[in-house]
Structures are given as C-alpha cells and as structure tokens.
Amino acid sequence: MARVAVIGAGVVGISTAINIQEHMPGSQVTIIADNFNQATTSVGAGAWIVPWAPGVDDATQRKWGRTSMDYFIKLAVSEESADSGASICMGIHYSVEPETPPYKHLMLSFDPLSKESAEKLNLGKFYCFTYTTVVVDMRTYLYWLMARFKARGGAVQQRKVKSFQELEAEYDVVVNCAGLGAKALTGDEKLQPMRGQMLRVSAPWVKHFLHSSNSFYFIPNVDNVGIGGIKTVGDYDTSVSHDTSKHIWENITKLWPPLKKARPLWEWTGLRPHRVPPRVEPEVIRYGNKSLKVVHNYGHGTTGISLSWGTAVHAAELVKEMFAPTSRL
Length: 329
Ligand SMILES: Cc1cc2nc3c(=O)[nH]c(=O)nc-3n(C[C@H](O)[C@H](O)[C@H](O)COP(=O)(O)OP(=O)(O)OC[C@H]3O[C@@H](n4cnc5c(N)ncnc54)[C@H](O)[C@@H]3O)c2cc1C
Description:
Elements: E1 3-7, H1 11-23, E2 28-33, H2 58-76, H3 81-84, E3 86-95, E4 109-112, H4 115-120, E5 127-136, H5 138-151, E6 155-158, E7 173-176, H6 182-186, E8 192-202, E9 209-211, E10 217-220, E11 225-228, E12 232-233, H7 242-255, E13 263-287, E14 290-300, H8 304-323
Parallel strand pairs: 1-2, 1-7, 2-6, 3-9, 7-14
Antiparallel strand pairs: 3-5, 4-5, 8-11, 8-12, 8-13, 10-11, 13-14
Helix pairs in contact: 1-5, 1-8, 2-8
The chain binds flavin-adenine dinucleotide.
Flavin-adenine dinucleotide (FAD) is lined by residues 7-13, 32-35, 40-42, 44-48, 160-161, 177-181, 185, 196, 198, 228, 270, 272-273, 298, 300-306.
C-alpha cells in the first residue's frame, strides 16, 4: 500500500490529497499540518474563480485553467452547491487602462460593457467588462473538502514539519502543499508573502461582484460581502491595520455607494504564497545513502483557490508516476 503524506491543510493541500486518493485507489493518504480551517490563508480568500497564474507556460496554463474551471462550474450547478459554498455569480471588472484578462476564454460569459452602461453605473471613467464565473465561500468550502477527504479514509495529523527528512521512514512520497510555509522547508527564494486585507460586511442586497486586477473590489459570499484590494509583496505582517480597513472602506464606498449602509462584521489579514510561477514539480531529496521522493505544489499567489483543483490533479499525476515501475525518479 502506497503511503503518501501531504503537508498542508489549505485549499491546495486538501484538494491534492483528494486527487491522490482518486488517482491511486488503495493508497493511504495523510494530511499533516500545523494549522487548519480558520487558521489558514485559504479560509479568508474572496474567492473568485479566475484560474490563471503568471509565468506559467501555455500548455500548463491551459491544463490547470480548464481543469479548475470545469470542476468549479460542475460543483456550482450540482446539488452540492449549498454544502460546498460554490455558486455561479456575475459581476463587473473595471480598470484604468484597457485590459484583456488571460482567463477570458474560461469564463461562462464575457462581454465588454459599453461606455453608456458604465456611465449609468458611475464607472464611466473606467474600461469595464462583465463576466460570469464561480464564487466560493471559503468558510464553507474548506470544511466540505476536508469531510470529503476523511470520508474516503484519509488521515489527519496536527503538527509542524521541520524538515522533509523527518517523514522519510514513514512515507513513500511527501507532497509539499505548505503554501508560504514551503519557504522554510525548501529555502525557495522565489517564494514571498503577498499581504492582503479584507473587510467582511453584511449587505444582503449586493448580488454581484466588482473586480479589479490592482484596485479595490467586493465579492458576495453566502452571508457576507468581502471587500479588499491590498497586495503588498514581501510584507509578513499578519496584524489587522484599522487604517488600511478605513482606506479600503472609503475607496469602495466612493466607487459603489450601495455599500455605504452595510453593517461591518470582521476584518482579516492573510499572506498569499506568491511565486512566479507556482511550483508544481517532482524532486528526489538525498540524505547520505537515503532518499525521499517529494512532489511540490505551492506558490499560488493571488489565484490559489482558482487554481487549486487544476494543480492538485497535476500533482496527483506526478505522485502516481513516482510509483510507476518505469519511473526514472
Ligand atoms: C485577501 C485575499 C484574498 C484572496 N482572494 C482570492 C480569490 O478571490 N481567488 C483566489 O483564487 N485566490 C484568492 N486568494 C489567494 C488564496 O487565498 C491563496 O493562494 C491560497 O489560499 C493558498 O492556499 P494554500 O493551500 O497554498 O496555502 P494555505 O491556505 O496558507 O495553507 C498552507 C497549509 O500548510 C500548512 N503548513 C505550512 N508549513 C507547514 C509546516 N512546516 N508543517 C506543517 N504544516 C505546514 C499550514 O498550516 C496550512 O495548513 C486570496 C488571498 C488573500 C490573502
């Protein structure tokens, strides 16, 4: 029986663990993490599904993007929608300069918004388009994913892994889905924190999203609206800045006055694991006369929820290849 350890219980770790169970029936998969659910970065994300990442070659981009998008659409239109927190949502993208997003072809709909319509929405000074995608309530989705993993016989351990080597005796393959924690495990200099801050408000009258690549945005979830727009690379500060919240609030309500009467719920800060490109690849690590097979799957940056399923399928394929008799690793 193949023994596989997955480090990380964020969206990337749990999705990868489930895909290994699916690709390798009979394997024993264990998720090892120091933080779960509310203590992960994943739980605080928006989360739009816009599956694209910078620096990835075209073929891989297509594979990750299409696999993720098809998975999330299927979930959002299934009877699991309520339990998983995935639903179809339409919204508006705005920018100061014209933009053609690289994920355009993956969206359920994508249409430029006429100048006249943008003016009616008080967005006349921007270039706008509307699109339809999936929005995921992460406080619901993470629990649903974990329940799916456990129902298939998955095991869970809470502890911090200090080095891959400590897992060598117990597991045949280790999968590194540690998010920003992968920096300490691998020494990868390309991996950086990208700090974000969100306000959550109650505004049940808001049914669409307003999206921007580099400015303020809002996104409706099951029982709240998430408002954000902060991306600071290299900043490790996980405390909430009330000045930043005020700044976000003033800007978004200027842009979208219907939010002015929203009731504040909570504020949250998270560090995105930023890496160009995300790292999904196998490695054999040698310790004297011993060795350990590792598959890395980390560094998803601003689109970790969006890419989670596509990169998880890819990582699970790499794990399966490591057990193939013809494997050269
Ligand atoms: C404000 C904000 C808004 C966002 N909005 C969106 C969005 O709309 N759409 C989107 O696609 N993405 C969004 N993201 C990005 C997304 O949240 C991340 O890319 C994603 O959550 C990364 O997931 P992960 O599983 O790699 O990392 P994490 O969720 O950080 O999980 C890492 C896991 O690894 C474990 N770990 C780390 N090191 C160790 C160790 N040494 N030993 C044991 N366990 C370890 C941790 O405990 C944790 O369980 C947003 C992020 C932020 C901050």
